[in-house]
Model the fold of this input.
Amino acid sequence: MTRIVTRRNKFQPTSIAIFLSTALIAVIAAFPLYWMINTALLPTDERFQSTPKLFPALNHSAGFDHLFSKMAIAKWLSNTAFVAIGCTLTSLMLGIFAAYAISRRHFRGRGLVTFILFATQMLPEALLVIPLYTLFVKLGLINNLFGLVLVNTAFVMPITVWVLKGAIDTIPHELEEAAVIDGCTILQIQRLIIWPLIAPSIVASAVMAFFQAWNEYLYATTFILDPDKRLASTGLAGLIGELVTPLDRVMAASILYTLPPLIFFLLVQKRIVAGLTSGGVKG
Amino acid sequence: LTIKAVAPARQIASKNKKSWRHRYAHWLLVAPALIYLLVFMGYPLFRGLQLSLTETNTLNPNVSAYLGTKNYQQIFQSSGFSNSLSVTLKYAVGSVVGALFLGMSAALIMNRPVRGRLFFRAMVTLPWAAPPIAVALIFTWMFNPQYGIINSALSSFGLVNKETHWLDDPHRALITLIVITIWMTFPLTSLILLAALQTVPKELFEAARIDGASTRKVFRYVTLPLMRPTIYVMTLLLSIWALRRFDLIWVLTQGGPVDSTSTLVVRLYQESFAFGNLGKGAAIGTIGFVISVLCTVLYLVANNRVEKSQS
Done:
Protein backbone atom coordinates (compact mmCIF):
# COMPACT_ATOMS: atom_id res chain seq x y z
CA MET A 1 0.00 0.00 0.00
CA THR A 2 2.65 2.48 1.07
CA ARG A 3 4.72 1.49 -1.93
CA ILE A 4 1.94 2.38 -4.33
CA VAL A 5 1.44 5.75 -2.68
CA THR A 6 5.11 6.71 -2.85
CA ARG A 7 5.28 5.62 -6.48
CA ARG A 8 2.32 7.77 -7.31
CA ASN A 9 3.78 10.77 -5.57
CA LYS A 10 7.03 10.29 -7.34
CA PHE A 11 5.73 9.80 -10.86
CA GLN A 12 2.57 11.83 -11.11
CA PRO A 13 3.86 15.27 -12.21
CA THR A 14 5.98 13.92 -15.04
CA SER A 15 3.40 11.42 -16.16
CA ILE A 16 0.77 14.16 -16.35
CA ALA A 17 3.15 16.25 -18.46
CA ILE A 18 3.80 13.30 -20.74
CA PHE A 19 0.11 12.56 -20.98
CA LEU A 20 -0.65 16.16 -21.92
CA SER A 21 2.06 16.42 -24.54
CA THR A 22 1.03 13.09 -26.06
CA ALA A 23 -2.54 14.31 -26.14
CA LEU A 24 -1.47 17.60 -27.75
CA ILE A 25 0.36 15.83 -30.56
CA ALA A 26 -2.57 13.48 -31.07
CA VAL A 27 -4.92 16.46 -31.34
CA ILE A 28 -2.66 18.22 -33.87
CA ALA A 29 -2.60 15.05 -35.93
CA ALA A 30 -6.27 14.19 -35.74
CA PHE A 31 -7.93 17.60 -35.71
CA PRO A 32 -8.07 18.21 -39.50
CA LEU A 33 -9.68 14.82 -39.99
CA TYR A 34 -12.16 15.60 -37.23
CA TRP A 35 -12.84 18.94 -38.89
CA MET A 36 -13.64 17.18 -42.14
CA ILE A 37 -16.36 15.19 -40.36
CA ASN A 38 -17.56 18.27 -38.52
CA THR A 39 -17.89 20.27 -41.74
CA ALA A 40 -19.73 17.46 -43.45
CA LEU A 41 -22.31 17.44 -40.68
CA LEU A 42 -22.86 21.20 -40.28
CA PRO A 43 -25.81 22.90 -41.99
CA THR A 44 -24.78 25.60 -44.47
CA ASP A 45 -25.91 28.59 -42.39
CA GLU A 46 -23.93 27.47 -39.36
CA ARG A 47 -20.82 26.85 -41.40
CA PHE A 48 -20.54 30.43 -42.59
CA GLN A 49 -20.20 32.07 -39.22
CA SER A 50 -17.28 34.09 -37.98
CA THR A 51 -16.83 31.68 -35.07
CA PRO A 52 -17.18 28.16 -36.43
CA LYS A 53 -19.05 25.60 -34.35
CA LEU A 54 -16.69 23.09 -32.84
CA PHE A 55 -19.20 20.29 -32.59
CA PRO A 56 -21.36 19.01 -35.40
CA ALA A 57 -25.12 18.72 -35.33
CA LEU A 58 -25.40 14.98 -35.46
CA ASN A 59 -28.92 15.08 -36.81
CA HIS A 60 -27.80 16.96 -39.91
CA SER A 61 -26.70 14.61 -42.63
CA ALA A 62 -27.58 16.56 -45.77
CA GLY A 63 -23.99 16.21 -46.89
CA PHE A 64 -24.38 12.47 -47.07
CA ASP A 65 -28.02 12.43 -48.17
CA HIS A 66 -27.55 13.66 -51.70
CA LEU A 67 -24.07 12.29 -52.16
CA PHE A 68 -25.00 9.44 -54.40
CA SER A 69 -27.86 11.08 -56.25
CA LYS A 70 -26.22 14.43 -57.05
CA MET A 71 -22.56 13.54 -57.43
CA ALA A 72 -20.64 11.01 -59.45
CA ILE A 73 -18.81 9.93 -56.28
CA ALA A 74 -19.95 6.30 -56.53
CA LYS A 75 -18.56 6.06 -60.04
CA TRP A 76 -15.29 7.75 -58.99
CA LEU A 77 -14.85 5.47 -56.00
CA SER A 78 -15.54 2.31 -57.99
CA ASN A 79 -13.00 3.38 -60.64
CA THR A 80 -10.48 4.09 -57.90
CA ALA A 81 -11.16 0.74 -56.25
CA PHE A 82 -10.64 -1.03 -59.57
CA VAL A 83 -7.23 0.59 -60.10
CA ALA A 84 -6.20 0.09 -56.46
CA ILE A 85 -7.14 -3.58 -56.35
CA GLY A 86 -5.52 -4.18 -59.75
CA CYS A 87 -2.33 -2.52 -58.58
CA THR A 88 -2.31 -4.51 -55.33
CA LEU A 89 -2.69 -7.87 -57.09
CA THR A 90 -0.13 -7.10 -59.80
CA SER A 91 2.53 -5.85 -57.43
CA LEU A 92 2.06 -8.82 -55.11
CA MET A 93 2.30 -11.31 -57.98
CA LEU A 94 5.46 -9.73 -59.35
CA GLY A 95 6.95 -8.85 -56.00
CA ILE A 96 6.55 -12.04 -54.02
CA PHE A 97 8.66 -14.23 -56.32
CA ALA A 98 11.36 -11.61 -56.77
CA ALA A 99 11.51 -11.12 -53.00
CA TYR A 100 11.98 -14.87 -52.48
CA ALA A 101 14.81 -15.07 -55.00
CA ILE A 102 16.62 -12.05 -53.58
CA SER A 103 16.25 -13.24 -50.03
CA ARG A 104 17.19 -16.90 -50.56
CA ARG A 105 19.47 -17.20 -53.56
CA HIS A 106 22.86 -15.58 -53.44
CA PHE A 107 23.22 -15.47 -57.19
CA ARG A 108 25.49 -13.32 -59.25
CA GLY A 109 23.75 -10.09 -60.17
CA ARG A 110 21.77 -10.05 -56.95
CA GLY A 111 23.46 -6.83 -55.89
CA LEU A 112 22.54 -5.22 -59.19
CA VAL A 113 18.89 -6.26 -58.85
CA THR A 114 18.78 -4.82 -55.34
CA PHE A 115 20.33 -1.60 -56.58
CA ILE A 116 17.79 -1.28 -59.40
CA LEU A 117 14.95 -1.72 -56.93
CA PHE A 118 16.40 0.96 -54.69
CA ALA A 119 17.18 3.32 -57.57
CA THR A 120 13.56 3.37 -58.77
CA GLN A 121 12.70 5.23 -55.59
CA MET A 122 14.74 8.19 -56.79
CA LEU A 123 12.86 8.57 -60.05
CA PRO A 124 10.41 11.46 -59.92
CA GLU A 125 6.91 10.52 -61.12
CA ALA A 126 6.81 13.87 -62.86
CA LEU A 127 9.80 13.10 -65.11
CA LEU A 128 8.34 9.74 -66.11
CA VAL A 129 4.87 11.12 -66.72
CA ILE A 130 5.96 12.72 -70.01
CA PRO A 131 7.54 9.69 -71.71
CA LEU A 132 4.83 7.41 -70.32
CA TYR A 133 2.24 9.77 -71.75
CA THR A 134 3.78 9.52 -75.22
CA LEU A 135 4.05 5.74 -74.82
CA PHE A 136 0.45 5.38 -73.67
CA VAL A 137 -0.82 7.54 -76.52
CA LYS A 138 0.90 5.11 -78.86
CA LEU A 139 -0.48 2.03 -77.08
CA GLY A 140 -3.99 3.46 -76.71
CA LEU A 141 -3.78 3.32 -72.91
CA ILE A 142 -4.97 6.90 -72.40
CA ASN A 143 -8.45 6.93 -70.82
CA ASN A 144 -7.88 3.34 -69.79
CA LEU A 145 -7.96 2.27 -66.17
CA PHE A 146 -5.57 -0.60 -66.92
CA GLY A 147 -2.96 2.00 -67.86
CA LEU A 148 -3.14 3.42 -64.34
CA VAL A 149 -2.81 -0.08 -62.86
CA LEU A 150 0.39 -0.58 -64.87
CA VAL A 151 1.92 2.75 -63.83
CA ASN A 152 1.08 2.51 -60.14
CA THR A 153 2.44 -1.02 -59.98
CA ALA A 154 5.77 0.17 -61.35
CA PHE A 155 6.10 2.70 -58.54
CA VAL A 156 5.03 0.51 -55.63
CA MET A 157 6.27 -2.95 -56.61
CA PRO A 158 9.90 -2.27 -55.55
CA ILE A 159 8.60 -1.41 -52.07
CA THR A 160 6.59 -4.65 -52.06
CA VAL A 161 9.75 -6.62 -52.90
CA TRP A 162 11.66 -4.80 -50.18
CA VAL A 163 9.12 -5.44 -47.44
CA LEU A 164 8.57 -9.09 -48.41
CA LYS A 165 12.29 -9.74 -48.67
CA GLY A 166 12.71 -8.43 -45.14
CA ALA A 167 10.02 -10.85 -43.96
CA ILE A 168 11.43 -13.88 -45.80
CA ASP A 169 14.88 -13.14 -44.36
CA THR A 170 13.53 -13.94 -40.90
CA ILE A 171 12.34 -17.47 -41.80
CA PRO A 172 14.88 -20.17 -40.90
CA HIS A 173 16.35 -22.04 -43.89
CA GLU A 174 15.84 -25.43 -42.23
CA LEU A 175 12.14 -25.40 -42.97
CA GLU A 176 12.75 -25.22 -46.70
CA GLU A 177 15.57 -27.73 -46.62
CA ALA A 178 13.24 -30.23 -45.01
CA ALA A 179 10.65 -29.52 -47.68
CA VAL A 180 13.19 -29.98 -50.48
CA ILE A 181 14.12 -33.38 -49.08
CA ASP A 182 10.44 -34.27 -49.07
CA GLY A 183 10.43 -33.42 -52.78
CA CYS A 184 8.67 -30.06 -52.82
CA THR A 185 9.09 -27.84 -55.87
CA ILE A 186 9.93 -24.19 -55.53
CA LEU A 187 6.32 -23.24 -56.07
CA GLN A 188 5.17 -25.68 -53.40
CA ILE A 189 7.72 -24.31 -50.98
CA GLN A 190 6.34 -20.84 -51.60
CA ARG A 191 2.73 -21.86 -51.22
CA LEU A 192 3.08 -24.22 -48.28
CA ILE A 193 5.87 -22.67 -46.24
CA ILE A 194 6.80 -19.12 -47.17
CA TRP A 195 3.42 -17.53 -47.85
CA PRO A 196 1.69 -18.68 -44.66
CA LEU A 197 4.67 -17.56 -42.57
CA ILE A 198 4.91 -14.08 -44.07
CA ALA A 199 1.15 -13.55 -44.31
CA PRO A 200 1.22 -10.44 -42.07
CA SER A 201 3.85 -8.82 -44.29
CA ILE A 202 1.92 -9.75 -47.41
CA VAL A 203 -1.06 -7.96 -45.95
CA ALA A 204 1.06 -4.94 -45.05
CA SER A 205 2.58 -4.64 -48.51
CA ALA A 206 -0.83 -5.17 -50.09
CA VAL A 207 -2.11 -2.24 -48.08
CA MET A 208 0.82 -0.09 -49.20
CA ALA A 209 0.20 -0.95 -52.86
CA PHE A 210 -3.47 -0.17 -52.36
CA PHE A 211 -2.54 3.22 -50.85
CA GLN A 212 -0.30 4.11 -53.77
CA ALA A 213 -3.03 3.62 -56.35
CA TRP A 214 -5.88 4.89 -54.19
CA ASN A 215 -4.11 8.18 -53.37
CA GLU A 216 -2.32 8.78 -56.66
CA TYR A 217 -3.23 11.99 -58.48
CA LEU A 218 -0.64 13.00 -61.10
CA TYR A 219 -1.11 10.05 -63.46
CA ALA A 220 -4.83 9.87 -62.81
CA THR A 221 -5.28 13.47 -63.89
CA THR A 222 -2.94 13.25 -66.90
CA PHE A 223 -4.01 9.92 -68.36
CA ILE A 224 -7.77 9.99 -67.72
CA LEU A 225 -9.70 12.67 -69.57
CA ASP A 226 -13.04 10.90 -69.93
CA PRO A 227 -15.33 12.01 -67.02
CA ASP A 228 -16.83 8.52 -66.79
CA LYS A 229 -13.46 7.01 -66.01
CA ARG A 230 -12.36 9.69 -63.57
CA LEU A 231 -10.89 8.56 -60.24
CA ALA A 232 -11.88 9.95 -56.86
CA SER A 233 -8.59 11.85 -56.47
CA THR A 234 -9.12 13.81 -59.69
CA GLY A 235 -12.84 14.17 -59.18
CA LEU A 236 -12.48 15.62 -55.69
CA ALA A 237 -9.57 17.87 -56.67
CA GLY A 238 -11.85 19.38 -59.30
CA LEU A 239 -14.20 20.52 -56.53
CA ILE A 240 -11.64 22.78 -54.86
CA GLY A 241 -12.37 26.45 -55.28
CA GLU A 242 -15.61 25.63 -56.99
CA LEU A 243 -18.66 26.97 -55.20
CA VAL A 244 -21.32 25.06 -57.11
CA THR A 245 -21.20 21.97 -54.92
CA PRO A 246 -22.18 22.62 -51.29
CA LEU A 247 -19.26 22.22 -48.91
CA ASP A 248 -20.92 19.68 -46.64
CA ARG A 249 -21.34 17.43 -49.67
CA VAL A 250 -17.71 17.91 -50.71
CA MET A 251 -16.54 17.00 -47.23
CA ALA A 252 -18.89 14.02 -47.04
CA ALA A 253 -17.46 12.79 -50.33
CA SER A 254 -13.90 13.20 -49.14
CA ILE A 255 -14.73 11.29 -45.95
CA LEU A 256 -15.88 8.36 -48.08
CA TYR A 257 -12.66 8.66 -50.06
CA THR A 258 -10.47 8.85 -46.93
CA LEU A 259 -12.10 6.02 -44.98
CA PRO A 260 -10.82 2.92 -46.82
CA PRO A 261 -7.09 3.76 -46.54
CA LEU A 262 -7.57 4.96 -42.97
CA ILE A 263 -9.23 1.72 -41.89
CA PHE A 264 -6.70 -0.47 -43.66
CA PHE A 265 -3.91 1.53 -42.12
CA LEU A 266 -5.23 1.20 -38.59
CA LEU A 267 -5.57 -2.54 -39.05
CA VAL A 268 -2.01 -3.17 -40.20
CA GLN A 269 -0.17 -0.10 -38.86
CA LYS A 270 2.33 -2.08 -36.82
CA ARG A 271 3.20 -4.41 -39.67
CA ILE A 272 3.85 -1.54 -42.08
CA VAL A 273 6.33 0.10 -39.77
CA ALA A 274 8.01 -3.22 -39.04
CA GLY A 275 8.28 -3.90 -42.76
CA LEU A 276 9.71 -0.50 -43.57
CA THR A 277 12.23 -0.58 -40.76
CA SER A 278 13.39 -4.17 -41.26
CA GLY A 279 13.92 -4.00 -44.98
CA GLY A 280 14.23 -0.44 -46.11
CA VAL A 281 15.37 1.86 -43.45
CA LYS A 282 18.24 0.05 -41.88
CA GLY A 283 19.53 -0.63 -45.40
CA LEU B 1 5.40 -53.46 -63.15
CA THR B 2 5.29 -50.42 -65.34
CA ILE B 3 5.63 -48.18 -62.35
CA LYS B 4 8.80 -49.93 -61.26
CA ALA B 5 10.34 -49.55 -64.68
CA VAL B 6 9.45 -45.92 -65.02
CA ALA B 7 10.47 -44.86 -61.54
CA PRO B 8 14.29 -44.75 -61.95
CA ALA B 9 14.04 -42.89 -65.23
CA ARG B 10 11.77 -40.39 -63.62
CA GLN B 11 14.12 -39.92 -60.76
CA ILE B 12 16.97 -39.12 -63.10
CA ALA B 13 14.83 -36.71 -65.04
CA SER B 14 13.70 -34.92 -61.91
CA LYS B 15 17.27 -34.76 -60.67
CA ASN B 16 18.40 -33.07 -63.87
CA LYS B 17 15.42 -30.82 -63.69
CA LYS B 18 16.20 -29.96 -60.12
CA SER B 19 19.75 -28.94 -60.84
CA TRP B 20 18.60 -26.92 -63.83
CA ARG B 21 15.97 -25.38 -61.68
CA HIS B 22 18.42 -24.77 -58.94
CA ARG B 23 20.77 -22.94 -61.24
CA TYR B 24 18.31 -20.68 -63.00
CA ALA B 25 15.20 -20.60 -60.84
CA HIS B 26 16.14 -17.30 -59.23
CA TRP B 27 16.30 -15.58 -62.61
CA LEU B 28 12.90 -16.99 -63.51
CA LEU B 29 11.58 -15.60 -60.25
CA VAL B 30 13.21 -12.20 -60.61
CA ALA B 31 12.69 -11.76 -64.35
CA PRO B 32 9.02 -10.71 -64.38
CA ALA B 33 9.62 -7.94 -61.86
CA LEU B 34 12.81 -6.84 -63.58
CA ILE B 35 11.32 -6.77 -67.07
CA TYR B 36 8.35 -4.88 -65.71
CA LEU B 37 10.57 -2.20 -64.21
CA LEU B 38 12.62 -2.05 -67.40
CA VAL B 39 9.51 -1.39 -69.49
CA PHE B 40 7.73 1.03 -67.17
CA MET B 41 10.67 2.82 -65.56
CA GLY B 42 13.88 2.12 -67.44
CA TYR B 43 12.52 2.85 -70.88
CA PRO B 44 10.59 5.99 -69.82
CA LEU B 45 13.66 7.29 -68.02
CA PHE B 46 15.79 6.83 -71.13
CA ARG B 47 13.04 8.28 -73.31
CA GLY B 48 12.64 11.22 -70.91
CA LEU B 49 16.33 12.08 -71.15
CA GLN B 50 16.04 11.80 -74.92
CA LEU B 51 12.92 13.97 -75.08
CA SER B 52 14.66 16.68 -73.07
CA LEU B 53 16.94 17.21 -76.08
CA THR B 54 14.04 17.69 -78.49
CA GLU B 55 11.13 19.92 -79.24
CA THR B 56 8.04 17.78 -78.70
CA ASN B 57 4.47 18.92 -78.47
CA THR B 58 1.48 17.42 -76.63
CA LEU B 59 -0.61 17.65 -79.79
CA ASN B 60 1.66 15.23 -81.56
CA PRO B 61 3.73 13.61 -78.82
CA ASN B 62 5.37 10.98 -80.99
CA VAL B 63 6.98 13.38 -83.45
CA SER B 64 9.93 15.39 -82.20
CA ALA B 65 12.65 17.61 -83.60
CA TYR B 66 16.19 17.36 -82.24
CA LEU B 67 17.32 20.52 -80.48
CA GLY B 68 20.49 19.56 -78.64
CA THR B 69 20.91 21.34 -75.33
CA LYS B 70 18.77 24.31 -76.34
CA ASN B 71 15.98 23.41 -73.84
CA TYR B 72 18.48 23.44 -70.99
CA GLN B 73 20.00 26.74 -72.11
CA GLN B 74 16.58 28.36 -72.21
CA ILE B 75 15.68 26.95 -68.81
CA PHE B 76 18.86 28.13 -67.12
CA GLN B 77 18.47 31.60 -68.58
CA SER B 78 14.85 32.08 -67.51
CA SER B 79 14.21 33.91 -64.24
CA GLY B 80 11.29 31.58 -63.54
CA PHE B 81 13.69 28.67 -63.22
CA SER B 82 15.91 30.25 -60.57
CA ASN B 83 12.73 31.18 -58.70
CA SER B 84 11.55 27.55 -58.92
CA LEU B 85 14.88 26.31 -57.71
CA SER B 86 14.83 28.55 -54.65
CA VAL B 87 11.16 27.72 -53.92
CA THR B 88 11.98 24.01 -54.16
CA LEU B 89 14.95 24.40 -51.86
CA LYS B 90 12.99 26.37 -49.26
CA TYR B 91 10.10 23.93 -49.46
CA ALA B 92 12.36 20.89 -49.12
CA VAL B 93 14.46 22.26 -46.25
CA GLY B 94 11.44 23.64 -44.40
CA SER B 95 9.35 20.51 -44.65
CA VAL B 96 12.21 18.08 -43.95
CA VAL B 97 13.48 19.95 -40.89
CA GLY B 98 9.94 20.44 -39.61
CA ALA B 99 8.96 16.81 -40.07
CA LEU B 100 12.16 15.58 -38.41
CA PHE B 101 11.78 17.93 -35.47
CA LEU B 102 8.10 17.23 -34.86
CA GLY B 103 8.54 13.53 -35.67
CA MET B 104 11.42 13.23 -33.20
CA SER B 105 9.49 15.03 -30.46
CA ALA B 106 6.48 12.81 -31.05
CA ALA B 107 8.67 9.69 -31.02
CA LEU B 108 10.36 10.66 -27.75
CA ILE B 109 7.02 11.36 -26.14
CA MET B 110 5.36 8.21 -27.46
CA ASN B 111 8.28 6.14 -26.18
CA ARG B 112 7.23 6.93 -22.61
CA PRO B 113 4.64 4.76 -20.93
CA VAL B 114 1.30 6.56 -21.04
CA ARG B 115 -2.20 5.38 -20.35
CA GLY B 116 -3.90 4.78 -23.68
CA ARG B 117 -0.62 4.64 -25.54
CA LEU B 118 -1.92 2.50 -28.40
CA PHE B 119 -4.85 4.82 -28.93
CA PHE B 120 -2.57 7.85 -29.06
CA ARG B 121 -0.23 6.15 -31.44
CA ALA B 122 -3.08 5.35 -33.79
CA MET B 123 -4.29 8.96 -33.66
CA VAL B 124 -0.83 10.38 -34.29
CA THR B 125 -0.27 8.20 -37.31
CA LEU B 126 -3.63 8.87 -38.94
CA PRO B 127 -2.43 11.73 -41.21
CA TRP B 128 -0.07 9.39 -43.00
CA ALA B 129 -2.95 7.32 -44.32
CA ALA B 130 -5.10 10.24 -45.47
CA PRO B 131 -5.00 10.76 -49.25
CA PRO B 132 -3.20 14.01 -50.24
CA ILE B 133 -6.21 15.25 -52.19
CA ALA B 134 -8.48 14.89 -49.16
CA VAL B 135 -5.81 16.67 -47.11
CA ALA B 136 -5.74 19.50 -49.65
CA LEU B 137 -9.53 19.79 -49.53
CA ILE B 138 -9.78 20.03 -45.78
CA PHE B 139 -6.87 22.47 -45.41
CA THR B 140 -8.24 24.73 -48.14
CA TRP B 141 -11.34 25.02 -46.00
CA MET B 142 -9.47 25.37 -42.70
CA PHE B 143 -7.27 28.15 -44.12
CA ASN B 144 -10.22 29.95 -45.70
CA PRO B 145 -9.74 33.69 -44.88
CA GLN B 146 -13.36 34.44 -43.90
CA TYR B 147 -14.79 31.25 -42.44
CA GLY B 148 -11.78 29.05 -41.75
CA ILE B 149 -11.16 27.65 -38.27
CA ILE B 150 -7.48 28.66 -38.36
CA ASN B 151 -8.21 32.37 -38.69
CA SER B 152 -10.97 32.34 -36.12
CA ALA B 153 -8.78 30.44 -33.64
CA LEU B 154 -5.65 32.55 -34.16
CA SER B 155 -7.51 35.86 -34.22
CA SER B 156 -9.35 35.04 -31.00
CA PHE B 157 -5.92 34.86 -29.35
CA GLY B 158 -5.03 38.12 -31.09
CA LEU B 159 -2.26 36.47 -33.08
CA VAL B 160 -3.41 37.46 -36.56
CA ASN B 161 -5.93 39.83 -38.09
CA LYS B 162 -9.30 38.49 -39.05
CA GLU B 163 -9.44 37.57 -42.74
CA THR B 164 -5.72 36.95 -43.01
CA HIS B 165 -4.99 35.37 -46.35
CA TRP B 166 -2.82 32.26 -46.30
CA LEU B 167 -2.75 30.13 -49.41
CA ASP B 168 -3.63 33.06 -51.66
CA ASP B 169 -1.05 35.49 -50.30
CA PRO B 170 2.33 35.44 -52.05
CA HIS B 171 4.20 35.94 -48.76
CA ARG B 172 2.37 33.28 -46.76
CA ALA B 173 1.53 30.61 -49.33
CA LEU B 174 4.84 28.76 -49.18
CA ILE B 175 5.03 28.67 -45.39
CA THR B 176 1.41 27.50 -45.22
CA LEU B 177 2.24 24.77 -47.70
CA ILE B 178 5.23 23.72 -45.61
CA VAL B 179 3.08 23.53 -42.47
CA ILE B 180 0.53 21.32 -44.24
CA THR B 181 3.31 19.12 -45.61
CA ILE B 182 4.81 18.69 -42.15
CA TRP B 183 1.41 17.68 -40.83
CA MET B 184 1.28 15.00 -43.52
CA THR B 185 4.83 13.67 -43.15
CA PHE B 186 5.65 13.83 -39.43
CA PRO B 187 3.52 10.81 -38.48
CA LEU B 188 5.45 8.29 -40.55
CA THR B 189 8.70 9.98 -39.52
CA SER B 190 7.81 9.60 -35.86
CA LEU B 191 6.74 5.96 -36.30
CA ILE B 192 10.05 5.05 -37.89
CA LEU B 193 12.10 7.05 -35.39
CA LEU B 194 10.10 5.42 -32.59
CA ALA B 195 10.89 1.98 -33.97
CA ALA B 196 14.59 2.91 -33.97
CA LEU B 197 14.33 4.36 -30.48
CA GLN B 198 12.94 1.10 -29.16
CA THR B 199 15.95 -0.83 -30.42
CA VAL B 200 18.29 1.23 -28.21
CA PRO B 201 19.12 -1.00 -25.22
CA LYS B 202 17.54 0.32 -22.02
CA GLU B 203 20.74 -0.45 -20.09
CA LEU B 204 22.48 2.37 -21.94
CA PHE B 205 20.02 4.95 -20.63
CA GLU B 206 20.20 3.51 -17.13
CA ALA B 207 23.99 3.55 -17.18
CA ALA B 208 24.02 7.17 -18.31
CA ARG B 209 21.54 8.04 -15.61
CA ILE B 210 23.61 6.39 -12.93
CA ASP B 211 26.61 8.36 -14.12
CA GLY B 212 24.52 11.44 -13.40
CA ALA B 213 23.80 12.63 -16.94
CA SER B 214 20.87 15.02 -17.35
CA THR B 215 17.97 14.20 -19.67
CA ARG B 216 19.38 16.61 -22.24
CA LYS B 217 22.81 15.06 -22.07
CA VAL B 218 21.43 11.53 -22.38
CA PHE B 219 19.63 12.63 -25.52
CA ARG B 220 22.68 14.42 -26.92
CA TYR B 221 25.30 11.73 -26.19
CA VAL B 222 23.35 8.45 -26.09
CA THR B 223 20.09 8.63 -28.02
CA LEU B 224 21.10 10.86 -30.90
CA PRO B 225 24.30 9.06 -31.97
CA LEU B 226 22.54 5.68 -31.90
CA MET B 227 19.69 7.00 -33.99
CA ARG B 228 21.86 8.80 -36.49
CA PRO B 229 21.58 6.15 -39.26
CA THR B 230 17.78 6.22 -39.04
CA ILE B 231 17.73 10.02 -38.98
CA TYR B 232 19.91 10.10 -42.09
CA VAL B 233 17.65 7.70 -43.97
CA MET B 234 14.58 9.68 -42.97
CA THR B 235 16.25 12.91 -44.13
CA LEU B 236 16.98 11.30 -47.48
CA LEU B 237 13.46 9.91 -47.89
CA LEU B 238 11.78 13.15 -46.79
CA SER B 239 13.98 15.18 -49.18
CA ILE B 240 13.24 12.96 -52.14
CA TRP B 241 9.53 13.03 -51.33
CA ALA B 242 9.66 16.83 -51.07
CA LEU B 243 11.40 17.07 -54.44
CA ARG B 244 8.83 14.74 -55.99
CA ARG B 245 5.65 16.03 -54.38
CA PHE B 246 3.09 17.27 -56.85
CA ASP B 247 -0.49 16.43 -55.85
CA LEU B 248 -0.69 18.46 -52.64
CA ILE B 249 1.00 21.59 -54.05
CA TRP B 250 -0.87 21.52 -57.33
CA VAL B 251 -4.28 21.14 -55.76
CA LEU B 252 -3.67 23.72 -53.01
CA THR B 253 -2.02 26.54 -54.99
CA GLN B 254 -1.20 25.45 -58.57
CA GLY B 255 2.19 27.07 -57.98
CA GLY B 256 0.68 30.48 -57.28
CA PRO B 257 0.12 33.16 -56.22
CA VAL B 258 2.72 34.85 -58.46
CA ASP B 259 4.79 31.66 -58.67
CA SER B 260 5.49 31.79 -54.92
CA THR B 261 4.93 28.03 -54.58
CA SER B 262 6.05 26.98 -58.03
CA THR B 263 8.42 24.09 -57.29
CA LEU B 264 10.33 22.33 -60.07
CA VAL B 265 7.69 19.63 -60.37
CA VAL B 266 4.87 22.16 -60.64
CA ARG B 267 6.82 24.03 -63.29
CA LEU B 268 7.47 20.81 -65.16
CA TYR B 269 3.77 20.03 -65.19
CA GLN B 270 2.79 23.51 -66.36
CA GLU B 271 5.43 23.53 -69.05
CA SER B 272 4.42 20.08 -70.34
CA PHE B 273 0.67 19.95 -69.98
CA ALA B 274 -0.46 23.60 -69.83
CA PHE B 275 1.92 24.98 -72.47
CA GLY B 276 2.37 21.65 -74.27
CA ASN B 277 6.18 21.73 -74.39
CA LEU B 278 6.94 18.12 -73.51
CA GLY B 279 10.61 18.52 -74.44
CA LYS B 280 11.18 21.44 -72.11
CA GLY B 281 9.18 19.71 -69.37
CA ALA B 282 11.38 16.65 -69.70
CA ALA B 283 14.46 18.86 -69.37
CA ILE B 284 13.14 20.29 -66.09
CA GLY B 285 12.39 16.73 -64.94
CA THR B 286 15.93 15.67 -65.77
CA ILE B 287 17.32 18.49 -63.65
CA GLY B 288 15.05 17.38 -60.78
CA PHE B 289 16.24 13.81 -61.19
CA VAL B 290 19.88 14.92 -61.03
CA ILE B 291 19.13 16.76 -57.79
CA SER B 292 17.53 13.59 -56.34
CA VAL B 293 20.60 11.57 -57.30
CA LEU B 294 22.87 14.18 -55.68
CA CYS B 295 20.85 13.93 -52.46
CA THR B 296 21.28 10.16 -52.49
CA VAL B 297 25.02 10.43 -53.07
CA LEU B 298 25.26 12.91 -50.21
CA TYR B 299 23.39 10.45 -48.01
CA LEU B 300 25.65 7.54 -48.97
CA VAL B 301 28.76 9.60 -48.17
CA ALA B 302 27.35 10.71 -44.81
CA ASN B 303 26.23 7.18 -43.97
CA ASN B 304 29.63 5.75 -44.85
CA ARG B 305 31.30 8.19 -42.53
CA VAL B 306 29.00 7.18 -39.66
CA GLU B 307 29.67 3.50 -40.26
CA LYS B 308 33.40 4.08 -40.35
CA SER B 309 33.38 6.07 -37.12
CA GLN B 310 31.36 3.34 -35.44
CA SER B 311 33.59 0.47 -36.48
Q: What stands out?
A: The longest strand of chain B covers residues 54-56. DSSP finds twelve helices and two strands in chain B. Residues 143 and 150 of chain B are 6 Å apart (CA to CA).
